[in-house]
Design a protein that fits this description.
The structure holds 2 protein chains of 2 kinds. Chain A is 72% helix and 1% strand. Chain A is mostly helical. Chain A has 2 domains: 1-253; 256-454, no CATH class. In chain A, a hairpin with a 4-residue loop joins β1 and β2. Chain A starts with a helix and ends in a 10-residue tail after the last helix. Chain B is mainly α. Chain B has a domain at 269-486. Chain B has 20 helices and 2 strands. Chain B has a two-stranded antiparallel ribbon with strand order 1-2. In chain B, a hairpin with a 4-residue loop joins β1 and β2 (71-77). Chain B is globular and about 65 Å long. Chain B starts with a helix and ends with a helix. Classes of the chains: A mainly alpha, B mainly alpha.
Chain lengths: 454, 486
């Protein structure tokens, strides 16, 4: 028991921090809540380092301390801290500010459970914990758009969640255990693996915004504050992707899951970028492009077990994605939500323009930026696993991606038709800090990628 | 001293220094640009003096990068890359001098130029597949912003077309590189060259992917359509770098990757590749003949000249005679350098003409030779070089290519027809712009000033030098080509 708890120090720290934050909010000390959150996240990140190279399980195999869950903490915890800073910049001084911080930390706790879950029950717990917090976060502004978005998100989440739980009971019935590690016993059995697989794809596919379970995402991102959209688009998505990795690497491939995931991956990438091409709202454009990014992550899921680069690829692209997507959203917080707001933005704010270009080119996968390294890992993994066609589709989609992101870059350097001379208020220092940090990571880690896991 | 690394990264470091510099006036920016590119040029001269070795790469510099997948930072040189490195550093130096008059957002312009130089030098010197791809793509981004930011009227569309076209073009190369990696376990290009890891159908697929990439970059018919648009809209220095340096990425890759890493497949497809070269040479010449826009005309002659390079490489793969093979590759490589010098100079001269007249349509000029003798005679000399007159830079190159072609695939010699066509179109252009009756509009036109002469004279001298006494250059190339392993 004590041994088990020692491996869970980061999770324990985070949940204690969240509780303290709620107390702080009750005392109307939102700033204190923020500080507790940031300190808690930083401490949890640091205390992950000693157990990073462990490969074990705790609580009778239900929770995994392995490469995926370790790196998930190193990615998601700092990512959450950055998101907290962005939220602070957007809603500082508003009512219920502290509860947002507390909710975010609780959702991240759920995300860690998804990334480390080794058992059906933990998986369900993670899905519920991330879901409940997220609905409330989306509804935060309390206006029509946000309420509608949250409602859609909730209904979608409730339905897919129930379907998932229902389907997963088939696996329990099939092997008599809720542990993923017992799923090997399903090898060769008809139907049961498939039912559970469909359930997992629906439940986690909804969280990761895979096509066709993505409908909530653009509405939710657009209805929520930009910083909340940024948070949801990286943290809960990555958690779902890591959860996919935890489940599917134990599921016998005789159930045909690699092919199913490959098809979903191809459809998600293509659909995401094609739809992004016609958006005029910047947040929706990035929302659709981040749906497409989920498709890229699936390249790594497909190659699980067949290529030693699959897991490192997921981790590398995951880290890159947190940096570049949070960074891009942070720039949107400064520029405004409409594509028209980008007109002349690069001339008006040269430094912001350059970093936005860096984020967008990294999302496209242009070397030597961080996103490129992640994509090379995943393309290589997919080809090694025998999915050459999928890699080709992924590579062709990079061209679509370029088209999508150029729709932002090109107007940035056009001369603004009517330069509104209104005095621009200088951006909140927290956002500038987030942009600086994420830009450094996006730019620098492309060169230093050798230090990442192998 | 890791001179290769120094030369590669000095430009981008200079660019970064410029970004953090408190005083970023146009003067400081251009001063920095000229100083950095000048030093890099000197460095490449020192690199040249250190020499290459037969049958492999010299001056290797290596550092771990992503050990998990066998990718490393590896730079090195041989007789194919060294002349291109020298050409690159020279053209960037001259471009920096020429660009000193640009005042619109000069610091950004200079940073992009310096970034392009790093990318170009890195592309020619990289000995790691992944690293090569990185430099290759970075150059694309730099050139996109160059055209979109400082080009002429229709620059946005041209830049976009250039970017999407060449990105689509370069992605198959990534597939081929991944394929080579998975079958060899390393990204070391030397391993891929010494023991081509792919065979049979896999090699053919990889070759097709690489040919697509490099054909777009060269550009060869029928994937050349981005070139005229990009050239016409690009700023002058952009055109010079695009034609002089970046088109060579395609031909360099054709030899380094396609020929050396999938030699058997290349030989099997040799006749097809040769045909592509012949068609490009002929098409480029005839299409140039139809232009009245001078810049577009020169752009199309690039397709023609690059067609000869493709022919040379294809002939080298087809022949069994080692002597003929060496002649073909010597010719092809020399043609790359000559084209850089001659077309670079022609684009500079057209830029100078356009600075003065704000037009590049040949029908608007006439009788300029008396008014601007320096500009006129330089253009005439370079035009003669471009059409392949003996004694000037293109002649020794094209002569060797045709010699090898005649020996190996006599039918392909019909490409020689293109020389007649280019001769016709250059004479027509010279007659229209510099001879005939003087157009009153241009009575006030100034001749080249000191800075412009400084840009053009080195290229004039080198063009004559390579034409009259090419041995110093050919020897450098020959040592490697003789012992090229494929």
């Amino acid at each position: 028991m004590e041994r088990d708890l020692s491996f869970l120090i980061p999770e324990l720290l985070l949940s204690s921090a969240a509780m303290l934050m709620i107390v702080a909010e009750m005392m109307r000390a939102a700033r204190l809540a923020l500080v507790i959150g940031l300190v808690g996240l930083a401490a949890a990140t640091l205390l992950t380092l000693p157990v990073l190279h462990a490969d074990t399980t705790v609580f009778s195999g239900t929770y995994r301390i392995d490469l995926i869950s370790g790196w998930a903490k190193l990615i998601l915890l700092p990512g959450t801290a950055l998101a907290l800073l962005m939220v602070r910049a957007e809603i500082a001084g508003q009512d219920r500010e502290g509860s947002v911080y507390a909710l975010i930390c609780l959702v991240t706790l759920g995300a860690l459970m998804l990334a480390g879950g080794g058992d059906i029950m933990v998986l369900v717990l993670g899905v519920v914990l991330t879901g409940l917090g997220s609905f409330a976060l989306v509804a935060f502004p309390r206006d029509d758009a946000a309420t509608e978005a949250a409602m859609k998100y909730l209904v979608f989440g409730a339905v897919t969640g129930s379907v998932m739980i229902y389907g997963l009971t088939f696996w329990f019935g099939g092997v008599g255990s809720t542990l993923f590690s017992a799923l090997g016993a399903l090898d060769g059995k008809p139907l049961i693996p498939t039912v559970g697989l469909v359930a997992v794809i629906i439940g986690l596919g909804y969280k990761a915004a895979l096509v066709p379970f993505h409908f909530w995402a653009p509405d939710a991102y657009d209805g929520a504050p930009v910083s909340i959209a940024a948070y949801l688009s990286v943290i809960t998505k990555l958690a779902a992707i890591f959860a996919f990795a935890q489940v599917l690497r134990d599921l016998p491939s005789s159930s045909g899951w690699p092919l199913v995931i490959a098809v979903i991956s191809a459809v998600t990438m293509t659909y995401g970028y094609l739809t992004a091409l016609v958006q005029t709202n910047l947040v929706r454009l990035i929302a659709y492009s981040s749906i497409a990014q989920s498709g890229y992550f699936m390249l790594g899921i497909v190659a699980l077990g067949a290529s030693s680069l699959a897991v490192p690829g997921l981790i590398v692209l995951g880290a890159a994605y947190v940096a570049m997507n949070l960074g891009a959203f942070a720039v949107v917080m400064i520029s405004g939500r409409s594509l028209d707001d980008m007109r002349g933005f690069g001339r008006k704010r040269p430094a912001m323009g350059i970093v936005m270009v860096i984020f967008l080119l990294s999302l496209t996968g242009i070397p030597p930026l961080f996103g490129f390294v992640g994509k090379v890992y995943l393309f290589t993994a997919a080809i090694e696993a025998g999915f050459v066609w999928l890699a080709v589709i992924g590579i062709l989609n990079s061209v679509l991606a370029l088209g999508v992101y150029l729709r932002i870059i090109v107007p940035m350097y056009q001369l603004a038709q009517d330069i509104n001379e209104s005095v621009e208020k200088s951006p909140h220092p927290a956002v500038v800090a987030v942009i600086g940090i994420t830009a450094l990571i996006t730019l620098g880690m492309g060169f230093l990628a050798g230090f990442l896991p192998a | 001293m890791p001179l290769l690394t120094l030369a590669t990264f000095l430009p981008i470091l200079g660019g970064l220094a410029l970004i953090v510099l408190p005083n970023r006036s146009a003067r400081v920016a251009h001063g920095m640009s000229i100083a950095v590119t000048g030093v890099v040029f000197m460095l490449t001269l020192v690199i040249w003096s250190r020499g290459t070795i037969a049958g492999g790469f010299a001056q290797i510099e290596e550092l771990a990068w992503i050990p998990a997948i066998g990718a490393a930072y590896r730079l090195g040189l041989d007789g194919l890359s060294l002349p291109l490195v020298l050409l690159t550093s020279l053209l960037f130096f001259l471009s920096a001098i020429y660009s000193a008059r640009i005042s619109d957002r000069a610091p950004s312009y200079v940073v992009l130029m310096l970034m392009l130089e790093t990318a170009a030098l890195g592309t020619f010197m990289a000995l790691d597949g992944l690293l090569f791809y990185v430099f290759f793509e970075v150059s694309l981004v730099g050139m996109y912003f160059m055209i979109a930011g400082w080009g002429y009227e229709d620059r946005q569309r041209a830049a976009l077309m250039f970017f999407i076209y060449t990105l689509l073009g370069s992605l198959p190369l990534l597939l081929a590189i991944i394929g080579l990696y998975l079958s060899s376990g390393t990204f070391d290009m030397r391993v891929w060259i010494d023991m081509p890891p792919l065979t049979g159908i896999a090699a053919m697929l990889a070759l097709i992917a690489m040919l697509f990439t490099f054909a777009v970059k060269i550009p060869a018919f029928p994937v050349h359509t981005w070139l005229p648009a990009a050239h016409v809209q690009a700023p002058t220095a952009g055109s010079v770098i695009l034609a002089g340096v970046m088109l060579k990425f395609g031909t360099y890759g054709l030899v380094r990757f396609a020929l050396q890493m999938t030699p058997e497949a290349f030989a099997q497809a040799g006749q097809v590749i040769l045909a592509v070269g012949v068609v490009s040479a002929l098409y480029g010449a005839f299409a140039a003949l139809a232009q009245s826009d001078l810049k577009k005309m020169i752009a199309y002659t690039s397709i023609n000249h690059m067609g000869y390079v493709v022919m040379g490489v294809a002939v080298a793969a087809l022949t069994v005679d080692l002597r003929i093979r060496t002649i073909a590759l010597d010719g092809a490589t020399l043609q790359m350098v000559s084209h850089g010098l001659v077309t670079g100079a022609l684009f500079f001269l057209l830029g100078m003409l356009q600075d003065r007249a704000h037009s590049r349509d040949m029908s608007e000029f006439g009788g300029l030779l008396g008014r601007v003798p320096w500009l006129g005679w330089s253009f005439i000399l370079m035009a003669f070089a471009s059409l392949g007159l003996p004694g000037l830079a293109h002649f020794p190159a094209e002569f060797q290519v045709f010699l090898a072609t005649l020996n190996t695939a006599p039918w392909a010699i019909i490409a020689i027809l293109a020389i007649v066509v280019t001769a016709g179109l250059y004479l027509r252009a010279i007659a229209a712009v510099f001879l005939g009756s003087e157009n009153e509009k241009w009575l006030e036109m100034r001749d080249l000033d000191r800075r412009e002469k400084l840009v053009i004279v080195p290229l004039l001298i080198l063009t004559v030098l390579v034409g009259v006494a090419p041995s110093w250059l050919i020897n450098m190339i020959h040592t490697t080509m003789e012992s090229l392993s494929f």
